[in-house]
Amino acid sequence: MPSLSWFNRDEDLTKAALAPYRLLEPVKSLSYGDEDAPNLLIEGDNLDALKALQPYFGGEVKCIFIDPPYNTKSAFEHYDDNLEHSKWLSMMYPRLELLKELLAEDGSIWITLDDNEAHYFKVIADEVFQRKNFIANVIWRKNYSPKSSARHFSVDHDHMFVYAKNAELWQPNLVARSEAQDKAYKNPDNDPRGPWKSSDLSARNFYSLGTYPVTTPSGRVIAGPPSGRYWSISEAKLKILDADNRIWWGKDGNSAPSLKRFLTDVKQGRVPQTYWHYDEAGHTQDAKKEVVALFGEDVFGTPKPEKLMQRVLEIATEPGDLVLDSFLGSGTTAAVAHKMHRQWIGIEVGEHARTHCQPRLKRVIDGEQGGVSAAVGWPEEGGGGFRFMKLGWPIFTENGAVRDGIKFEHLAAHVWFAETRSPRASKALKQAFLGEHEGTAYYLLYNGILGDTAPAGGNVLTRKLLRQLPAFDGPKVIYGEACELSEEQLAERKITFKQTPYDLKAR
């Protein structure tokens, strides 16, 4: 498959693999609401944050939405949106690789861009996700009114590229039918089956049984279908449908036959289309009004409206699914995901992760009623919560060892989260026994946790040390620097030994 070349491409192809595994450290003062909620707001560079998430959420994210800098050569207060072309590609490629690893097999990723980089992006996305997994290029009509001051054209749309992790497995949800579509269904004959819409019974396609004459209820004889057309059903089928009152002959019973299609018989939704008008997906003026209502000023140059995010999540997810946005911006994705009862992870670099994203999500949890709140039924009492996280030190040195200074509780949190996909309680005891989860006990031998400060003391699993650990009858997973027990001895005691750091780093 053809590939795109740019300055430093070879180096960029290794950036994802070489990015360090960093700790995710909770910031309790900025977390809010239910402390057991699974939602994460992460402050830090998204390349490092995406790498930090791999041990916990690899293959689990149902929908990724990103709105990266458009490289428009214009200045934004909160984004460097003036990246030179090669630098923009260098930024995007390794992040796409890590995003792909986080996607579930039946998941999808949605990327909004304009014409500045959209077509170059398509080439590198085809390379990362494979061209066979490209789903669509959705055109979003983002402007409410044309720009009369434009030099050549009023650019009224953005691109939204949709890729699946596996196009054979991904299945979009139907889009809700609009009021305008349902209004087309009437019931002029008071049919007890409800509203219906007439459908022409003639077609241009040749049909050998479609040339017969018909007699209307008023007695008028119609010699056959219109010139150059054929009835789409046989005469026998027509009589069966007419007997069931499924043929409409007009108010006077004197018109050519048409088929009654009942609203109850049509899909209660429609296949997503690739053109989204602002009436159904919002527009930039909506987005700016939402931002001003939240922050008192227009602090983001290109925010996305909540209605757009609602449409994406309706198509790509179900309640309870995990949604990720690694260019969180003003926090729209996380806010809408929360209101729609999805789990979410938002990543944002810079101070406004604290000054804008965190306050916005607090308001959602408190019951904020702007944006799509009414449309999705978000209650005034709100609900839920999130944990604010920041990036800590890399866990491992360049040669693969656990970095000096990594505290037991930090590595314990990493181990527990990697194994159980659940957060370790902030008040958990500092002890080798980390806890029991779904019938399995977890232990960590690290940093002299058992009181032995000699080199490697207490970090090597021996029979003597094993007797010091809290007993557990079921299966056990023990992390340590080394193990002196044989495979038979481990199996007899239902122990799975994992070597630190290798078995952690490989996850």
Based on the model shown, name its key terms.
alpha/beta; single chain; four-stranded mixed sheet; 29% helix; 22% strand; 507 residues; eleven-stranded mixed sheet; Rossmann fold; 24 strands
List the helices and strands and how they pair.
Elements: H1 9-12, H2 15-18, E1 22-26, E2 32-33, E3 40-43, H3 46-57, E4 61-66, H4 85-102, E5 103-113, H5 118-129, E6 134-141, E7 157-164, H6 179-183, E8 196-200, E9 202-203, E10 214-215, E11 221-222, E12 230-231, H7 235-243, E13 247-248, E14 258-262, E15 275-276, H8 278-281, H9 284-295, H10 306-316, E16 322-325, H11 332-339, E17 343-348, H12 352-365, H13 373-376, E18 385-394, H14 408-420, E19 433-437, E20 440-444, E21 460-461, H15 463-468, E22 476-480, E23 482-483, H16 487-492, E24 495-499, H17 502-505
Parallel strand pairs: 3-17, 3-18, 4-5, 4-16, 6-15, 16-17, 20-22, 21-23, 22-24
Antiparallel strand pairs: 1-18, 2-18, 5-7, 6-7, 8-14, 9-12, 10-11, 13-14, 19-20
